[in-house]
Write a structure and sequence with these properties.
single chain; Aminopeptidase_N-like_N_sf; three-stranded antiparallel beta sheet; protease; 442 residues; aminopeptidase; 30% strand; Zincin-like; globular; EC 3.4.11.2; Aminopeptidase N; 28% helix
């Protein structure tokens, strides 16, 4: 779907992002330093980098050749890099915190998203390159150190742990964050604004940190306070939460899109100012992603059904038990529409690029999991789920991995059952529901 995303020949070991943020929609000076290891001899290599104004590129301290074509930055070191050697790339540039792109699916606008007093980022699916030069593919993970300088009346936040907050020249503040665990570039979060950091605890003393625009602290407090219960409910289904901390970043934007940025889910303010049922659906959806899509990362974009399908599955399951609509009724409606969705958007595991984040990847993919549960039974299904999030914790996995693991846990070959659901042009019969009917395709 995105054939130029990601680059071979090296492995990123850590990113260091140094941003001298100034004001909303105002360009600022930025430096990205990448510590990497070559996996083959390299006379040149590529980074994914879009927009922004490139200044200099060095490799191991020496000026390197640099050329750009589209989103590809080709770097030619002064001396070739031998296989198996560590090296450091430093890129300086002027970042544009108003730079966005648009998709005609659930993502809408992505990249740098301005807010009234700062910025948030929507890197999904491949907008991290609008923020920093990267190996921008969902399967490629690395830890990140964020060092963000802001005016003293602004707060910077990012994935992971706040390491330090120190004074900087010019009456400014330098914020340093460590992601703690590796993460995919599509899960990066970096925001600046007039924020309050609201600390609390989840189950087992898990540190919770919400990041809230000052004017929205009280209006969003009731729904944000539901997170410990959401964590407890999901841990009962899936096992321990997979990271060291969690929290919600309240997005002061008009975008209606929430995002599972790792350890700090971005939830639009409208979601937290509406009904409790709608708020909880979105909160549980993004929290479920911390297991599915964040801890267990996507092997390729064709595997998005695993991530979004699970998030929608647990979102609807939770909602049904907490005042929302019937889960079974939602799945029956999805079943009726499934052949049409297959025609319009591709089968669950066969998306096309323009239709990547359309209905099939959400309710259409949750339906596959519903069918699997109906096929193997509740107890075996839960064992499959727990085996998936524990067995692939902190790594990447794809559709075939899911089929293989489900078969192993169930003690039977489920390939013949799951493949038609995931790849077929026609929706298979729903186990246990012979009366369910698929609508004709128009």
């Amino acid at each position: 779907m995105f054939p130029l995303d990601g680059n071979g020949g090296y492995r990123v070991d850590r990113y260091y992002l140094d941003f001298d943020w100034q004001a909303p929609r105002t360009p600022f000076e930025a430096t990205t330093t990448i510590r990497a290891t070559s996996t083959q001899a390299l006379s040149r290599f590529n980074l994914d980098f879009a927009g922004n104004t490139l200044h200099t590129v060095t490799v191991n301290g020496s000026k390197a050749g640099a050329s750009r074509e589209g989103d590809e930055l080709t770097v030619t070191p002064k001396s070739p890099l031998h296989a198996g050697r560590s090296f450091t790339v430093k890129v300086t540039y002027t970042a544009d915190p108003a730079q966005t792109r648009h998709r005609d699916d659930a993502i809408e606008d992505y990249g740098w998203i301005p807010t009234p007093d700062g910025t948030v980022v929507y890197p999904q699916p491949n907008g991290a390159r609008l923020i920093f030069p990267a190996n921008d593919h969902p399967s490629l993970r690395a830890p990140i150190t964020f060092r963000i300088t802001t005016p003293k009346d602004r707060t910077a936040v990012a994935n992971g742990k706040l390491v330090s907050r120190t004074s900087a020249p010019g009456d400014r503040v330098r914020w340093t964050y460590d992601s703690e665990q590796p993460l995919s570039t599509q899960l990066v979060q970096l925001a600046v604004g007039d924020f309050r950091l609201v600390d609390s605890e989840g189950p087992g003393g898990l540190p919770l940190r919400d990041v809230v625009p000052s004017a929205l602290v009280e209006p969003t407090a009731e729904y944000r306070g539901l997170t410990p219960g959401h964590l407890k409910w999901l841990e009962e289904k899936l096992g321990p939460y997979p990271f060291n901390r969690y929290g919600i970043l309240v997005g002061d934007t008009d975008l209606g899109v929430a995002l599972e940025t790792q350890t700090l889910s971005l939830v639009p303010k409208a979601d937290l100012l509406g009904t409790k049922v709608d708020a909880e659906r979105n909160m549980v959806h993004e929290l479920a992603h911390q297991w599915f899509g964040d801890s267990v990362a996507l092997e390729s974009w064709s595997d998005l059904w695993v991530s979004e399908g699970h998030a929608r599955f647990y979102e609807r399951l939770y909602s049904e038990a907490h005042g929302g609509d019937s889960f079974e009724a939602a799945m029956r409606a999805a079943y009726a529409a499934h052949d049409q969705w297959r025609k319009d958007f591709g089968a669950p595991a066969e998306p096309t690029e323009p239709n990547l984040f359309k209905r099939m990847r959400y309710d259409g993919s949750a339906l596959v999991l519903y069918a699997l549960r109906e096929r193997v039974g509740e107890e075996t299904f839960q064992r499959i789920e727990r085996a998936w999030v524990s067995g692939f914790k902190g790594s990447t996995a794809g559709t075939q991995d899911f089929i293989d693991l489900a078969s192993k846990v169930a003690g039977e070959d489920l390939e013949g059952f799951l493949r038609p659901w995931l790849y077929g042009s026609k929706t298979p019969p729903m186990p246990g529901h012979p009366d369910w009917v698929v609508n004709p395709v128009t």
